[in-house]
Amino acid sequence: MKVGVIMGGISSEREISLLSGEGMVKALKDSDKYEAIPIIIDSKEDVFSKTQDIDFALLALHGKFGEDGTIQAVLQTLGIPYSGCDTLSSALCMDKDLTKTILKAHGIRTAPWLMVSSLEDIDYKAIEDMGYPVVIKPNSGGSSVATFIIKEASEVLDAVREGLKWDKEIMIEKYIKGDEITCPVLDGEIFPTLAIKPKADFFDYTAKYTDGATDEFIIELQEALQKEVDFMTLECYKALKCSVYARVDFIISEGVPYLLEINTLPGMTKNSLFPKSAAGRGISFKELLELIIEKSLIVRG
Fold first, then answer.
1. Residue 236 has what pLDDT?
2. CB atoms < 10 A from the CB of 148, how many?
3. Active site residues
């Protein structure tokens, strides 16, 4: 079976996508099940011209036209089965505001937030009531691009202005200080929880993609907390109608878990979290990718 590994794209996370795609192609090089074909997308039109001879699309895209459901809809129209979540779920999870709104309605704990779409929308009184520090970030961004921890009102304007260069909506969210963890899910099964310990104060773009900048390791939480995290993870996965695989991120503050976000196409570089979690189950990177392909073919079959 010819598997097109689709990478690159048009989002701010293009370079990370290329790394993910290259890692996937390399990992599948020795597969006796699938022939991995690298497909670099430089424009939306490339999807039509570069996918004609593949049997399956293994998505290594991140950000817009990758995780937002758009390319999933295109591939579905072309009759090409693809990896991961479908159009609806991808779109919901890409929009942080919608994600938090839906999950809050399902009783999932998440930090207070408000939205702005212009500098004039900034409500300093509402931010003051929410309490500093706050996190200011693009609503549909990823990899912590244009994400800032803001400690006082004088810093808000510049952070929102920078965020608006990347997205038309900006989320201002109460900063919850704590320990970050991530919970990968494959076909409704929770994989080992990973602790994320950046050596800097913040798990930013550099910490995520630079060797040695962050310690990431499998952790077993205290029993009651682990049960709550596992429950919240599956509730998030189900409420947002995820399929095949996703990664659910939390912050643990004084023993209380708060949802951060859900990644429907989590990174697949050598530094990425999902492969590290899978390794805790004795599943190699190649085996993980083969499982993702197999589970996706069942869902899309």
1. 98
2. 20
3. 13, 143, 209, 247, 249, 261, 263, 267
